[in-house]
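Contributing: when you submit paired examples, paste them exactly as shown. First protein:
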Amino acid sequence: MTTPPAVPVPVARPGLRDRVRREAYLLRLQLWLDTYPGKPRRALVAQLRADLDAAAADTSMARAIAGLGNPRALAAEYLALLPRDRPRWLVGATWAAAWLVAWLLAVTTFAAALVQVADGAGPAGVAARLLWLELTVVATDATFSVSSEGFPWGLVLALVLLVLGARGWRVVPALRPDHP
């Protein structure tokens, strides 16, 4: 004789305010779980979402979230269970993005200054070097152009910052700190 499969008890869907509160908490948690592997992190967040809904059905979403505590502390608990040899891609991407924004801001400001000077420079325009990038600006009544020459070292530096910030060498098993 077989027993019938257990029917899951449906949990009432939380209201809009509670769903927003829950998703905001889970988003902050996911930001702190940047080094947690992708599929297990998604499964963990899905499980926490279901647990929060079930707990909110008994009390309230605010109390259910308060029961989990600070998302940073909760993420630290989960991350403590992982091996310490994982790259941190979000950190590396942040370093690279910060460099690219600063570099592009400097190049844009420099190009804007060259446009001011190029107004009276004639048909040959004006050329100047900023770090490793040479910009040429031609501004006449008939034409306006901005061109650059040189190897894109700014992008290479962004890639280096990505790898350094993320500790990307940890992808290679022989370079991991706990490798025998």
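Second protein:
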Amino acid sequence: MYPAHDVQYALENTRVVVSPDRRIDTFGTTNFRFYLVSELMDSVGEIRVRDGRISADRPQIVTPDHASRLLLEGFGEDAQQFARMLQARHAAFLKYGFEIRKSDLSDILVHDRLEAVLDRVERQIPEAERSGSAVIQGVEEGWEICLLKFTFDLVQLSTNINIFDFKRRGLL
């Protein structure tokens, strides 16, 4: 588990250099390839490039009734009150599911300047994979936090499109 200051540092030092053109598909599974580039803290000019995949399951509509059942399990009075408020508003929200496939994760060490490595990684993305790929500059300690930040930012970018698609099909 990361200390709070390490989490904050990772969040503040995550930069998406190349963002995928695609968003999370409303009615299917979406796969993204990521390249996470981080500088080793105790080695000058040593850069780690991680290459892996994130799979995003299609978003699910969570109704107020279902949300209240989820919230009530093991929670106290504040959660129960919040669930009642959701039911009264008839508010639905989307639930996203992600899996970071560790089996697809690889990494290499490169001896160069950070900016040069980022530029090279960006140029080496196969043309056929550009729309579903991301290059992320992050930190070595807490690189998973950087990857999660990218993932949650992608959810935020996709939410309005997903809601529109659900409404267009009469599901919301």
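If you have annotations for the second protein, write them as plain sentences, like these:
Helices lie at 4-12, 64-72, 77-89, 114-123, 143-168.
Strands lie at 15-18, 30-39, 46-62, 93-111, 133-139.
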